Amino acid sequence: MTTPDAAWRPPPPRGGDTGGPAKRDPRCSLGRIAVVLLALAALALPWLMHTLGASFYISFAGRVLVYAIAATSLNLVLGYGGMVSFGHAAFVGLGAYVTGVMISEGVLNGGAHLLATLLVSGVAAAVIGAISLRTRGVYFIMITLAFAQMLFYLANSIKGYGGDEGLNIRARSAIGFGLDLKDPTTFYFVALAVLAACLWALARFVPSRLGRAVLAIRDDEQRAEALGFATFRLRWLVFVVAGMVAGVAGALSVNQQGYVSPNVLHWTASGTLMVMVILGGVATLWGGVLGAAALLVLQEVLSSYTSHWEFWTGWVLLAVVLFARQGLAGLLRGFKTR
Amino acid sequence: MNGDAGALLEVHGLRKRFGGVVATDGVDLQVRAGEVHALIGPNGAGKTTLVAQLAGQLAPDGGRIVFDGADITAWRAHERARRGLARSFQITRLFKCFSVLEHLALALQAASGSSVGAWRPMRREAALWQAARAQLSALGLHDHADAAVEALSHGQRRALEVGMAVAAAPRLVLLDEPMAGMGPDESVRMEALIRDLARRTTVLLIEHDVDAVFRLADRVSVLVSGRIIASAAPDEVRRDPQVIAAYLGRE
Questions:
Q1: Beta carbons of B118 and A8 less than 8 Å apart
Q2: Does B98 contact chain A (CB < 8 Å)?
Q3: What residues contact residue A291 under an 8 Å CB cut-off, 6+ apart?
Q4: pLDDT by residue, tens only, chain A of 338 residues
Q5: Measured between CB atoms, which of A204, A210, A215 is closest to B97?
Q6: Residue A237 lies in a domain
Q7: Which residues contact B233 (CB under 8 A, 6 or more apart)?
Q8: Helices A231-257 and A209-219: crossing angle, nearest 10°?
Q9: Is A138 domain-assigned?
Q10: Sign of the Cα pseudo-torsion (B129, B132, B134, B139, in order)
Q11: Which of B81, B109, B123 sits opposite A10 (nearest CB)?
Q12: Which end of chain A is more exposed for a tag (fewer CB within 10 A), N or C?
């Protein structure tokens, strides 16, 4: 695992020199320590909550993890890929509905849920991406939004699966090993494993051939294409992978809540994910995680004091956008340097 | 085929209009393998529009482009680049989050390598970095391998811009005003770079500096109002009354 700096520059070569860029980053080892500490804290959290008698917060933490997965997948598209998708909740919603519908039809095999989720959200992202990626800027934002809203109205109109009232499920995905996702602690660890896998894959992706190409395309698409990069295909590939990961987040969320409604597909859900990415840090490894944690904690804390919590959240977002251009991840990085 | 033998790039009747403005008005052009072919012309003659059509950033309204025996008129820019038709840009376009060496490695990867690997860090690819490093000294950037592009001078950025275009040894490189905005010293260095390049590849040079053009080019084509009015050896072009009237003026 690398520090968020890896978003911009590969760490120095280890051992035998490959002739690659010779940059030594003194913060690298510090970042590693922070990651290990964070991982230990995440692993110990359920035990800590039980001990403190605050078990309620385990399912809250599980919710943070699900949002962190979805926000990280959006960060791949929006931050690294430079594609401002305003319809990312569509893929989360598809994953949630596919899994929810399968469970309500009596198909409980978790592996089947995962496969179907990846397939459906992947195909949807492939189609939506193939069309939307022909547009740029504000048109791309509008067309991704339009696709997501289409799916929102579709979910509303399917009366057989709850329609606008949503779909309740009694059972959960059966994942074997005697694990029951209804148990908040079990769910927490499963979601944590999925998030860790996503972050690991993202950390590997950024300094890879594909990652470098995608960053170059984000910075100057025409220049990258003139160099020989198949820009459309590579952007599309990233869009599809991110859609599939978002689908997995949706499959997890329906397992946690036992419920899925068209609201998961609503444009405000896409907006929430976007706020998380901007709050946490665009194009940073930890941006999605930090943003999801910060926004949900903020909501939780503020809503116990006031019903106008959104008003105060707005101020926080404004401050981050104005004063911390790389979000919370950028702030943390600055803190470490000092 | 009506092109002369040995033509690496043949352009037949290329046309492009923007609304009422005809930017490219039936351009015919042959670039022979191994030559430095210069394209000159007054401002607004349509040189940059022509380059964009040759490299694939702009689709022509009519006409044909044949490169290396293949009709590439409908090809995308990246397909042309991977076939060996590279270009540099008039306005330096570098990637702000990459170092000098990373730019060259990126160019090598783009033109000839694969870009689907998402697992292996690029820094482990010794062969790629060695090939990128080998390019540095020819560009005069050997002391700046790890520099960020903001730290480079204008001349160094221009050298890197050209260096990215030629990193993967293209068959033909389109240089769009490589000396734009350069001081005398920088221009001399760029001229040497182009001369060095010409030993290895075919060059289509678009340039405003007419003196440099006549020193470098094997043949010169003159573009005026979207048409080629002359295409010959430098001395011949210099004496062409049509060219003198339209562009060079009386010397």
A1: no
A2: yes
A3: A71, A275, A276, A277, A278, A279, A280, A281, A327, A328
A4: 333 443 444 444 443 455 666 554 545 577 788 889 999 999 999 999 989 888 889 999 999 999 999 999 999 999 999 999 999 999 999 999 999 999 999 999 999 999 999 999 999 999 999 999 999 989 999 999 999 999 999 999 988 888 888 898 988 988 888 888 989 999 999 999 999 999 999 999 999 999 999 999 999 999 999 999 999 999 999 999 999 999 999 999 999 999 999 999 999 999 999 999 999 999 999 999 999 999 999 988 888 888 888 888 888 888 888 888 788 888 887 765 44
A5: A215
A6: yes
A7: B218, B219, B220
A8: 110
A9: yes
A10: negative
A11: B123
A12: C
Q: How many domains does chain A have?
A: 1
Out of B78, B89, B145, closest to residue A228 by CB? B78
Q: Is residue A21 part of a domain?
A: no
In three-state secondary structure terms, A289 is helix
In a domain, A169, yes or no: yes
Q: Does A231 touch chain B (CB under 8 A)?
A: yes
Task: Tell me if residue B191 falls in helix, strand or coil.
Answer: helix
A210/B110 touch (CB, cutoff 8 Å), yes or no? no
Residues of chain B numbered 149-178 and touching chain A (CB < 8 Å): 164-165, 168
Contact list, A134 vs chain B (CB under 8 Å): none
Cross-chain Cβ contact A210/B118 below 8 Å: yes
From chain B, the residues in CB contact with A237 under 8 A are: 116
Identify whether B149 is part of a domain: yes
- The whole-number pLDDT of residue B183 equals 87
Shortest Cα distance from A109 to chain B (angstroms)? 30
Q: Does A208 touch chain B (CB under 8 A)?
A: yes
**A:B CB pairs within 8 Å:** 138
Q: Averaged over B122-149, what is the pLDDT?
A: 89
Q: Please, are residues B122 and A10 in contact by the beta-carbon 8 Å criterion?
A: yes
Q: Is residue B9 part of a domain?
A: no
Instruction: Output phi, psi for B223, to 5 deg.
Output: -105, 120
Any B CB within 8 A of A271 CB: no
Give φ, ψ of B178 to 5 degrees.
-65, -25
Q: What is the predicted ipTM?
A: 0.90
Q: What is the pLDDT of residue A75?
A: 97
Note whether residue B7 is domain-resident.
no
For residue range A204-230, list pLDDT tens digits in order. 999 999 999 999 999 999 999 999 999
Residue whose token pair is 């405000």: A268
Residue at A108: amino acid letter: L
For A129, the domain range is: 56-266
Domain count along chain B:
1
pLDDT per position as a tens digit, B136-145: 988 989 999 9
B97 part of contact set with chain A, CB < 8 Å: yes
Give the chain A residue nearest B54 (alpha carbons).
A226
Chain B residue numbers touching A217 (CB-CB < 8 A):
none
